[in-house]
Fold this protein.
Amino acid sequence: MRDSDRLAELPTAELIGRLASGAPTPGGGSAAALAGAMAAALVEMVCELTVGRDGGGADEAAVREIRSSASTRRQELMELAELDARAYDAVVAARRLSRQTDAERDARSLRLAGATREATEIPLRVAGAAAEVLRLAGRIAPLGNRHAVSDAGVAARLAAASVHGALLNVRINLPSLAAEDPLRTRAGSRVDELGAEASRSEDQALAAVAAVMG
């Protein structure tokens, strides 16, 4: 991807068109991160529709804290969407390196190992950030403006999709990591932990939404 092709700067229609194309990036990893960023934005929106309108005091302070956390995660996930695309571009570039000599094969293996490691770590970070957005969606549902509670529910669904989608990208890369690489074991454990946590958090968030909707 060229510097002028930053995902955050593309019009929505062009971004979706890029996803629909045969180009390897942006792909599912970036899409997962962007889903998480949209979820965070919706949490922020519910907060904006709540502060100064529905109550105040301790609840309003909590809503402001949720809004600040969601804003931080939104920006993080937007950047991770970009990094994910660049990481996979690096994997593709490494795979295309020459293998005609022993030296070239060694250099290619080294480059590919580093690129694959990066392409594994980034979606793991996406899953972690999106898991936090999912928790924020669950927190804002009972506190936020009841007229926007469905938006909190959409945020929870998107954040859960972001977590599970990012974890798929971690899992597909794990077999390509060296058996002795500690990331292989650590990431494998985190995949299970984050996946189970996301499922629980989504159920809790949607239950909170249902309670408000009646």
